[in-house]
Design brief:
- The chain is an alpha+beta fold.
- The chain has 19 helices and ten strands.
- It has a four-stranded mixed β-sheet with strand order 2-1-4-5, with no helix packed on it.
Length: about 450
Amino acid sequence: MKTATGANTVPHPEGQGQYPESQPVGVEMVPASSSWTKAKPVLLMEAVVATDNMEQAYRRVVANQGAPGADGMTVHQLADHLKQHWSALYERLLAGEYHPSPVRAVEISKPKGGIRQLGIPSVTDRLIQQALLQVLTPLFDPGFSESSYGYRPKRSAQQAVSAMKAHVTAGHRWVVDLDLAAFFDRVNHDLLMARVARRVRDKRVLRLIRRYLEAGMFQHGLTTPRRQGTPQGGPLSPLLANILLDDVDKELERRGHRFCRYADDIQVYVRSRRAGERVMASLSDFLENSLRLTVNRAKSAVDRPWSRGYLGYTLTRHKLPRLTLAKASLQRLMQRVREILKRGRGHHTRRVIDELTPVLRGWASYFSLVDVKRPLEALDQWIRRRLRCVIWRQWKRPRTRRRKLLALGLDDQRAWKSAGNGRGHWWNAGASHMNQALPKKWFDQLGLISVLDTARGLSRSS
């Protein structure tokens, strides 16, 4: 049966009619012959493969899109694949006999330099990992620290930044900034599984999680076995990272420290350098000996908060510190804008602005907590100048420039003088004739958003 939108309904697992047609689905997830009585408790793996849970996981995986894994299957092919193979997959999961495919290795550049290796699971394995995540999160998340903000329901990086500001405002004006070297690549499987087993008793689930940890890495036509690490790229990895690092949170809470942790980004706030150095030494020892993780001594430091920054933000030195942009955050956005404008050479300005808009809006939304607005105003001016530079290049010849400037309202003498001034593109983009011809209002009409106005509006609404 199909819904009004054309999607197929899914038979109820116990064969008692259909789910409501308003429920969006894709495939039949549980064979009609599979059922369990009310007297029998639902085990964890049964909860993982339950119809509602799998349908929710299916919708999430499809919505997230994502690149194909090593088998080349896309999310658009997943529904047809499951229609053919779900019954066998379902039985293997319940029997504890399912073995994941190798993950596809992908290397990406880190914002601060270097290479990060991601492991992209197959679409089928992303579906199963998402289903596992939805069942495991309610088991683990309620016990996590209030100072842990990364990859958790109803938690965000902005909350971590706000907490950082509150700790420094309260007088903890030294920070122990810990950098874990290649954290996701060095997670010890035995230590992690021991912590997962504290709350998970179903051995089938435990075996499946370990198999995901040990799934080989497929690269250059070869599969390399993995003895440690939880590769970034799968839905389950962030939860597993939080499970392991929860021991760090509990240790810091036991010692009475103020701290923020977002995934493997850890900062502890203290009142003096001496206290910070003690915390750095003892916490490094705990991480390396108890969790077998490696602290990057070169990137870790005891310092003032305004000299380090956190999650793209930093603080001013004031007694009541204010949030401002970290320089690296501004530089990364400027580089992204340059790349978009470079690709847009020769294209209509409106098309370039349409490509810029989601980038600027997302960036402004993330940095809406910024208290110091002047860098945002300067950024808006810089973006408009870059666009004017692109337009000036497109006009090319003095005769074309004169004609365009006249059409935009400049008088003939000024248009002719400006068009043939012989100056460079960047100089002209900032000159008064281009500011008059292409003012902010002109860009507003084309749909260019203001980072300052967007951030300010989101700040007020929150």
